[in-house]
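go over this:
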Amino acid sequence: MVAAPGGRLIGVAPSKTVDPAELRASLIAVSAWLDDPTVPKPARAELAAAVRLSARTLEQTAPGSSVEVRVPPFVAVQCIVGPRHTRGTPPNVVECDPRTWLLLVTGRTEFADAVQGAGVTASGGRAGEVAHWLPLVRV
């Protein structure tokens, strides 16, 4: 909630809908690096676009606010229907680095494997539900 003029509380507008073509293009731009980590890392702007667009796609595909997905330093979104978290540390959190996130998004790795391999930190009883929504796009 945000305070409007006069102190009235209003809901925060949802993120702009992600264009599937823009998401696909951003993922294709980083594909070589995802396939081979020895390839030079993409430019920060390219990496940020792929991470942000994919996380916002998850937010739109699995609306809700019971799980927070964090991909520092680029984005944090809330998703999956359930109890809303309003302050402090959320009870259900999924956090990973940008490369691991994009590997999950594109289906190059499975959620359970990433958790086992320590690429993903998943805390809370509902954090694992994110796996149901992945991959978002196969490129």
Observations:
- The domain at 20-133 is CATH 3.30.1050.40 (Nonspecific Lipid-transfer Protein; Chain A).
- The beta strands are 2-3, 9-10, 67-71, 75-79, 93-96, 120-123.
